[in-house]
């Protein structure tokens, strides 16, 4: 038996399937947020462990990201540990309790999975620190997210070393009922798949290296969905989070890896506008149409903006405006999005001269000194509103029993008149 074990160890070393345990191995691709281990850095506090690295956000009670390496030699039979508070956090940091999730409807979702660290009990226990958790819907955690975790372990078992970074994004104001942890809108994971070989995994990464990125909505109803439904690019995660990935790689290699979308061509890029929106003119009450053409890896989605504010329901390549009013005079642009990223168009103006309303007139009659043509004790005044190229005139007429007085005004958009009966 001893000889057999020695032979297995020798074979494992020969093909490079070493356990990826060790502080120096867990963030070979870089520190995406420049997190530091200063206890005063409470929004990007760096934790470096032999099993994983972590950027912890004390205010949210969850990690910004967790990074670790995975090989088949990291998968053993230690079993599953129990959730524990992370008593290694600096003094003054809130230490999320195991009970803070109770009754919330959310799972204590691992970032670095328990099953990725099962060679020793000690390695597995570290993954159960509450600092390694995020509020995750059961359908996400136990379904599609768990399926992707299993897929990663199958890639490791097939003879690959995986460099993995996982995190959360799209935080709003929602928190657990206890207030201990913020609830994210998405869970994401970036996996760089490096065939086992000599040297470090980092030294074996090229522009041909496979990258798998998923961004999964933290909602109910996705338990049985295929994880491939949520494939995206590292560039998209950068857009969502503001982080920068692959900083330890040559910039030319990093740029290619960021754009990759697994299962699509390596040249996939964000949409490109081949036709930009053009300025439009119209008449007051008229119509105007903005249109674009964009190329890029399908599917491509659209969103129009007016003076930088998203327009509800304006989600096609064409925007049609009807019954144009003064409020519609603005700059219009559109964002085109695919799995590789988002591109904003040029802004196109709706002409300010095209939607000016006819002059309107406000007037009042006040008791004053009698005026010729107006009944005793009544004086008339008027103010016309509109652009400045029109005219205003006083009109009056007297019948056998009544006097009528009115005002008319005109500009390039039309004319308006009001007349009143004075008796």
Topology overview:
Layout: H1 2-15, E1 45-48, E2 53-57, E3 62-70, E4 107-110, H2 121-126, E5 133-136, H3 138-157, E6 160-175, E7 182-195, E8 210-217, E9 231-232, H4 234-241, H5 251-259, E10 272-275, E11 288-291, E12 293-295, E13 301-306, E14 309-310, E15 318-321, E16 331-338, E17 341-344, E18 348-349, E19 360-366, E20 379-385, E21 391-398, E22 403-411, E23 414-422
Antiparallel strand pairs: 1-2, 2-3, 3-6, 4-5, 6-7, 7-8, 8-9, 10-12, 11-15, 13-14, 13-16, 16-17, 16-18, 19-20, 21-22, 22-23
Describe the structure.
By secondary structure, this protein is mainly β. Helix content is 13%, strand content 34%. The chain is built from 5 helices and 23 strands. It has helices at 2-15, 121-126, 138-157, 234-241, 251-259, and strands at residues 45-48, 53-57, 62-70, 107-110, 133-136, 160-175, 182-195, 210-217, 231-232, 272-275, 288-291, 293-295, 301-306, 309-310, 318-321, 331-338, 341-344, 348-349, 360-366, 379-385, 391-398, 403-411, 414-422. It has a 7-stranded antiparallel sheet. Strands 13, 14, 16, 17 and 18 form a 5-stranded antiparallel sheet that branches. A hairpin with a 6-residue loop joins strand 6 (160-175) and strand 7 (182-195). The radius of gyration is 33 Å and the shape is globular. Residues 1-16, 354-405 and 407-423 have low confidence and may be disordered.
